[in-house]
Design goal:
Distance between the termini: 30 Å
Strand content: 5-15%
Largest sheet: 2 strands, parallel
Structural class: mainly alpha
Radius of gyration: 16 Å
Shape: elongated
Number of helices: 4
Mean pLDDT: 96
Length: about 90
Amino acid sequence: MIESGGYKRFDKLIVVHCRADVQLERLMSRSNLSRAEAERRIAAQMPQEEKQKFADYLIDTSDGFEAARRNAVEVYERLSQESKKLTETV
């Protein structure tokens, strides 16, 4: 989305990310890759830190599902509040 410029079509951008060590372990586990293969795939992508610069909201999945779910709910609530404010001013 970011690399292609598609994010420009949206009012807000949410970037979901995790710590680099978690990203590497998840990729190796999910795709049954060696460490070297996983590192090459990650190196071929835009760094997470760079993607985060484009975000209006961040959701960190590093600490597992429950923490990510709580963070996603917080983002949803903030977006809902912003939306409500916009409709009140129109």
